[in-house]
Design a protein that fits this description.
The chain has 357 residues and is of the alpha/beta class. Helices cover 48% and strands 15% of the residues. The chain has 17 helices and 13 strands. It has a seven-stranded parallel β-sheet with strand order 3-2-1-4-5-6-7, sandwiched between helices. It has a six-stranded parallel β-sheet with strand order 10-9-8-11-12-13, sandwiched between helices. Helix 15 links the parallel strand 12 and strand 13. Helix 1 crosses helix 17 and helix 10 runs parallel beside helix 16. The radius of gyration is 20 Å and the shape is globular.
């Protein structure tokens, strides 16, 4: 029986891990056993526990409860805690997801103990080294033995860096998730009624990336644009606790005007709102893709994106944080004729596990 140690810490990772954990339970339980470590990076109940409940993920074997602090402090504490788990549990392989501090800590702890690292969502690049996520993913890719890419673009990015061994395009585990939970969300979530929004007649917005939240000028421009939009169409803005604090500290609540600012949503509630929005406005990589999966036009408040396929296919437009560009893009958003099958066939989790056996 091969032992996998899965490291997660942020809500997008819980979602991705759910797809792999479910596939493991259904087809690989006789060959693989999974031990999950939750670093605690997202500690709020709506950022963490509710995802385990709704996605049916087993409770983590270890919860390090590490959150807050600078990148260095957080990553260092995670590295120490994850290493301690690895020394006690002796896994055969460490499975990491995405590009967070939890990802980086898991990769570094494993490689220093000579444990093979398997990276889900390998090869993504924004080519913006000011993004902490870009640094995290590059380091994780460099030390990984198995690199599970979601797209051919990601495979090419790695090849351009001289990384070819252990690389495979398995498709996107988030596409697996979207296929599995789209109908469930419609059947179970009551969030649209609770917020009083009508399908196809509201904008869903999210904002959490440091390039926006840590730049007062960009944050003010985004808040002003959202407030302007809300005069014409309902705008729902679930806010990460950190972003909410920044908005308050910068005195931007008045600019938001009639925007419905809500607490972070559960997974199913978020999927429900994503599926039925007229337009999605975001700086999240995962939300860009989910908009694409659900056939909803997306406006991205960034200067670049790792998910270039969503832009080239016409479903996503990059506007940075410019208020006028942002407003124009939302008003002009339209649905292209089709969606290319660039994110796989919905069986990414099975393909990952087949290589871990």
């Amino acid at each position: 029986m091969k032992k996998i140690l899965t490291v997660v810490g942020a809500r997008p990772q819980f979602i991705k891990a759910a797809a792999v954990s479910r596939a493991l339970a259904e087809g690989y339980a006789s060959k693989l056993t999974e031990i999950m470590v939750h670093t605690g990076q997202h500690y709020d109940n709506n950022m963490s526990q509710v995802f385990f409940d709704e996605l049916g993920i087993p409770e983590p074997a270890h919860n390090l409860e590490i959150s807050g602090g600078t990148h260095g402090v957080m990553t260092g504490r995670m590295l120490e805690g994850i290493e301690r788990v690895m020394l006690s549990d002796r896994p055969d392989v460490v499975l990491i997801y995405g590009d967070t501090n939890s990802t980086l800590a898991g990769a570094l702890a494993a490689v220093k103990l000579h444990i093979p690292v398997a990276h889900v969502e390998a090869g993504l690049r924004s080519f913006n080294m000011r993004m902490p996520e870009e640094v995290n993913r590059i380091v994780a890719d460099r030390v990984s033995s198995l690199l599970f890419c979601p797209t051919e673009t990601a495979v090419r990015n790695l090849a351009n860096e001289g990384i070819v061994n252990g690389v495979s395009n398995v498709g996107d585990v988030m596409y697996d998730v979207s296929l599995h939970y789209a109908k469930v969300a419609v059947e179970q979530s009551k969030i649209a009624a609770q917020l009083g929004v009508t399908d196809g007649r509201y904008v869903l917005a999210t904002c959490h990336r440091a390039e926006n939240t840590d730049d007062p000028k960009r944050m003010r421009s985004i808040a002003a644009a959202l407030g302007e939009l809300a005069k014409d169409i309902p705008v729902v803005l679930p806010l990460h606790p950190r972003t909410r604090q920044i908005v308050a500290n910068q005195g931007l609540l008045d600019l938001l005007g009639d925007v419905q600012v809500v607490e972070p949503l559960s997974f199913l509630d978020m999927v429900r709102l994503e599926q039925s929005a007229k337009v999605i406005l975001t700086d999240s990589g995962g939300v860009q893709k989910e908009a694409f999966f659900y056939g909803v036009p997306c406006v991205t408040m960034r200067d670049e994106t790792e998910w270039v396929e969503t832009v080239s296919s016409g479903w996503n437009v990059l506007v940075g944080a410019d208020k006028d560009k942002l407003l124009a893009a939302v008003h002009e958003a339209a649905m292209p004729a089709g969606r290319p099958a660039v994110y796989g066939d919905g069986r990414a989790a099975e393909k990952i596990l087949a290589q871990l056996v």
